[in-house]
Write a structure and sequence with these properties.
By secondary structure, the protein is mainly alpha-helical. The protein has one domain (3-295). Helices cover 74% and strands 2% of the residues. It has helices at residues 3-29, 32-44, 58-81, 86-92, 96-107, 114-137, 140-163, 168-176, 180-190, 193-201, 205-233, 235-238, 245-256, 263-280, 292-295; strands spanning 281-282, 285-288. Strand 1 (281-282) and strand 2 form a beta hairpin. Helix 1 crosses helix 13 (245-256) and helix 4 runs antiparallel to helix 13. The radius of gyration is 18 Å and the shape is globular. The two termini are 20 Å apart.
Length: 305
């Protein structure tokens, strides 16, 4: 990869890592379900009018929109809202790599390799360390909700693989059109119209900026650049840079939200990242598969979460 493209890959990893801190900032202004609805609405409109059709069966757009947009982000945002620290959330969410392998084995009949199973065990040890640390400092329910979000992400990875979208950016724009209405209905039911209206009326500049960031920067810009890099270079040289996401997430949380970085956190991060890396490398071929295991992108043009 050219130096400029290496910098772009690192930039996208940084954007996605910092995104967890930005979500935490947005949750200061908005109830979690409303914030998620606004995020997807802004990501889909007006972009959906300019990208053209998704070029996959519409059922996959709906399925991924519900599992990824409605379920995964609802659990993630609620988990963070009730106390899951953003840095640790960026790390724990990477357990989706293990769930992707498991669901691929069950639903797609893909036989997991020994390296994948070993990597899953190592990453799981890191996740357990996070849970043990949180038991004394934060609500364990928030941790469990992020785990459920990772489960949903794993399911959406498998669905995306089956859909095989030729243009991941276009696919993500259409997927983003699915969640806003269900999320708004859920927000009205569980968060209340009064609370939603109050949040919109009292929206601060930081809340507005957070919404723009998660919609336009993390979603549209992030997927556009990542998809371009994979189209040019293939998944093999690009995928490893996604392992930097929790590194940037933990660093940003420590810098901007005063989240402590303890030795337990460092050990857990090393275990999770190493486990994902080990499970993704095919012996005899310097290739990382699937890209979904580290980013949630799969089958982006030509090689591919």
């Amino acid at each position: 990869m050219k130096p400029a493209h290496v910098l772009l890959a690192v930039l996208v990893a940084a954007i996605w890592g910092v995104n967890f801190v930005v979500i935490d900032v947005g949750l200061d202004d908005f109830p979690p379900l409303l914030f998620s609805a606004l995020r997807f609405l802004l990501a889909a409109v007006p972009a959906v009018f300019f990208v053209g059709p998704p070029r996959v069966a519409w059922r996959w757009v709906v399925i991924v929109g519900i599992v990824l947009g409605v379920l995964k982000f609802s659990f993630l945002f609620i988990g963070m809202h009730i106390g899951m620290p953003p840095g640790l959330a960026s790390l724990v969410l990477q357990s989706q790599a293990a769930f992707t392998v498991l669901f691929a084995a069950v639903l797609l009949r893909e036989q997991p390799r020994v390296a994948q199973l070993g990597g899953m065990a190592i990453a799981a040890a890191g996740i357990v360390l996070v849970g043990l640390r949180l038991g004394a400092t934060a609500p364990v329910v928030g941790f469990l909700l992020v785990i459920v979000a990772a489960v949903c992400w794993g399911l959406s990875n498998v669905a995306t693989r089956r859909a095989s979208p030729p243009d991941m950016f276009r696919f993500m724009v259409w997927v983003s059109l699915v969640p806003p209405v269900p999320l708004l209905v859920l927000s009205l039911l569980f968060e209340g119209a009064g609370k939603d209206l109050a949040a919109l009326r009292s929206m601060t500049p930081s809340g507005a900026a957070a919404t723009v960031y998660v919609a336009w920067v993390a979603t549209l810009l992030g997927y556009a650049v990542w998809g371009h890099l994979i189209k040019v270079h293939g998944a093999t040289p690009v995928a490893p840079y996604a392992l930097l996401i929790p590194v940037f997430g933990l660093a940003a949380a420590a810098l901007f939200r005063d989240e402590p970085v303890t030795m337990v956190t460092v050990v857990a991060a090393v275990l999770v990242i190493a486990g994902i890396a080990i499970g993704a490398v095919r012996p005899g071929r310097p290739r990382l598969l699937p890209v979904a295991s580290v980013t949630g992108q799969d089958r982006v043009p030509a090689d591919t979460n």
